[in-house]
Amino acid sequence: MSARVKGRIRLAALAVPLAGALLLTGCGSGENLAQQWEDSNGKNYVSGDGSSLSIAPSERTEPVEYSGETETGGTFGSADTLGSVTVVNFWYAGCAPCRAEAPDLVAAYEEFGPQGVQFVGVNTRDQVAQAQQFSEQFGIEYPSIMDNAGGREVQRAFAGQVPLNAVPTTLVLDAEGRVAHRVLGQLAGESQLRTLISETLAETGDAKPGEQ
Fold first, then answer.
1. Contact at 8 Å (CB) between 30 and 165?
2. Are residues 61 and 18 in the same domain?
3. Is 100 helix (H, G, I), strand (E, B) or coil?
4. I need a labelling partner for 2 at 20 to 30 A (CA). Which of 16, 24, 108, 166 fits?
5. Do 5 and 70 fall into the same domain?
6. Residue 130 is part of a domain; what is its CATH number?
7. Number of domains within the chain
8. Would strands 86-91 and 52-54 be described as parallel, antiparallel, or unpaired?
9. Domain assignment present for 212
10. Are residues 125 and 198 in the same domain?
11. What is residue 102's DSSP assignment?
12. Tens of pLDDT along the chain (212 residues)?
């Protein structure tokens, strides 16, 4: 058998497990965030590694429908953001990475909010007073849904579309409400979120001049 044929056989053997790994990374359901909290046994937070997943428009799932009561007593959900690129951040006040990335989220909100980008937090653990104190401390003006009781409906709605395996987790939804990008764990910085938002805006032609 020639060296070239042997090389092709080795490549074919490697391709099968690699394809399986990619399938699990992109499509596997995994253990969703809501279930992790139920099984957390008092852990401080379910940590992530900051890994990023981007989904091509042709491969995105159905729009995610969600709604819940915010820390101010109002109601907020997907119906309020339809037609807009939306950033969804899963967090809670005692989570150290959540506190570390809060200024990056605020900076992105101040930059992209005037362009029509929507932001919403999903609080996975706190009472209202804790959530309000966190928002005041970091100057967060966008709403957060209190999703820590009654079955964690918002978390389950998103976990049905894309694995949510860490707090914090940040999602960027396209204008149709489909998950376009996901970051598990703390954002690498404001620039990372700016890039993901700009890429999603560019799909609808709403990016600022010079941005891709």
1. yes
2. no
3. helix
4. 16
5. no
6. 3.40.30.10
7. 2
8. unpaired
9. no
10. yes
11. H
12. 544 444 433 333 333 333 332 222 222 233 344 444 344 333 333 455 667 899 999 999 999 999 999 999 999 999 999 999 999 999 999 999 999 999 999 999 999 999 999 999 999 999 999 999 999 999 999 999 999 866 789 999 999 888 788 899 999 999 999 999 999 999 999 999 999 999 999 997 755 544 43
Q: Which token pair is 190?
A: 């404001």
The pTM for the full model equals: 0.76
Same domain? For 106 and 80 the reply is: yes
- Domain co-membership, 57 together with 130: yes
Same domain, yes or no: 119 and 136: yes
List C-alpha distances in Å: 203 to 51, 121, 127, 199, 211. 22, 24, 37, 7, 11
In whole angstroms, how far apart are CA 147 and each of 5, 9, 98, 178?
56, 51, 16, 20
Q: Looking at the DSSP assignment, which residues form a beta bridge with residue 87?
A: 119, 172
